[in-house]
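Sat 14:20. Reprocessing the chain from the morning session after the first attempt stalled halfway. Input below, unchanged.
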Amino acid sequence: MPLSLFHQRLRQFGHELQELHMQLYHSEKEFADFVAMLEDSYEQRNDALKALDASREQNPEWFRGQNMLGMLIYTQCFGGNLKGVRSHLDYLQEAGINYLHLMPLLESPPDRSDGGYAVANFRKVQPSLGTMEDLADLTSACREKNIAVCLDFVMNHSSEDHEWAVRAKCGEKEYQDRYFFYDNWDIPNEFEKKVPQVFPTTAPGNFSWCEEAQKVVMTTFYPYQWDLNYANPAVFNDMTDNMLFLCNHGVDVIRLDAVPYIWKALGTPCRNLKEVHSLVRMMRIVCEIVCPGTLLLGEVVMEPSKVVPYFGTVEKPECHLLYNVTTMASIWHTVATKDVRLLKHQMEQVFSLPKQYTFLNYLRCHDDIGWGLDYGFLRRFGQEEIPHKKYLNDYLTGRWMGSFAKGELYNDDPRLGDARLCGTTASLCGIETAKKHGDKAKIAEAIRRDAMLHALMFTMSGVPVLYSGDEIAQENDYAYHEDPLKAEDSRYLHRGNLDWKKAAKRNLKNTIENKVFCAIRQQEALRAKYSVFDDAADTWVLDTHNDHVLGLGRYYRKEKLLALFNFSDEPQVAWVQDLSVYTDLLTGEQRDAGAVQLPAGGYVWLHRNM
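Finished this time. Tokens:
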């Protein structure tokens, strides 16, 4: 009797899966239970999703290439609820979106949710947003429009309101063993000697006292987010089951939230331990067996040396996608300093990586901008970490004389001279300030700067992702200051509701909304048209002989692109020293690439058939 498709895949991947599972959990029974759960999840997967799996198995790189464009949205901010999002899918198609990241929408306590990252039920949508059936309906509608859906899977911790946590509070040892409970502070204090603090000002320490259980519990992020103990096979089994439940509701991309933190060991920093990679590799194998059309996106917000290992290896891959977080921070550093040398250094590192590594490239997201820069490199130019961070924050909050930016600090710690930054792309680019002063010339410059940064994102290989509202130059939302549930979290500065009245202006000539929307749509169209933007292209950093101008080169199938970006507030010349004639993709004009004139905050894409 021929093997079922599930058992064919299990035969292909099962040996490695069993080996990894046994290394962590040392139990054949636990592994057998795990496999039984996988088969049950496979059987529950509907025919439409199985057909999609088969199609994507034939084209495993379906998510790569110059046609991909993502958008990150909060359901409640974009459409009010899941049905509202579904009603606006035509808008997403008009914007060229084929990858939709829905921010956390599973049930969470409204007053202790950390923006939805404290999940009380991994199998229930927040009631105000809809139901699991609404989610399945939305993902089905997205599939019909060729839009892949990404959803956060908050795997490091649960809410203290989760059933497991509630039962742990009541003293049930089985459920206390799913977390990290201690009778006193002795062991937690030993952990604290090595484990860094995530939020030292707003949530100091990595442990909290649980009054109901009369014990100490590990809470790396916030006291209401209890770290799950993945050394317990019941946790890994049940959380994997929860992940597959979401996949079976049509989620195409699972974002593994805070993945470096998921394995804890005394005497270590509890970050990026080898067991984490074993767990992620097992989750990749699980997807290959049960739902091979599903991608894993790793949220690894760390320096490049810590990020890249989460791709795994060619033979044993882990995540399909990772965030290009250091490039994002380096871009905003360059906006503030007007000096491209650090960004050049960062791009050289990215370009040296294997081409099969696929990054998500973005300018802004739901979170703050953390200044995890290469300070060893910056010291070559006399920049020390603490004063340099202060300059960046002063400039991008508008405190620095002559700054155009409008942002706010997040998690400011005056003792350490450290803080992170919040703000929308439009406000950080100067659109908000220029509008306030009614300065038409500065408005034009700010729009150019906004378009230039998006063009840079589209020039890089990988998947570009817009943050909802950036496509219409949405500015900071200061209303959060009046909301007691949000006032202490400045990240809500850029988490405001999408302004649909502003969105309507995208079709009104000469409005800011129209100019930004059209600029981004033009970039998307050009990127999709020319094969030089393909992920397989050779890429390099150009020497422009001007520290204000970043130069990037691409070559693929006899097409060459020179991309030049002026970060200065003044016109600049890029000295490329290329005597060839290129076509300016934005204007269609022929241009000599030897000495290229760029307006303040401007860019060019110069294309040539070889």
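The mean pLDDT is 96.
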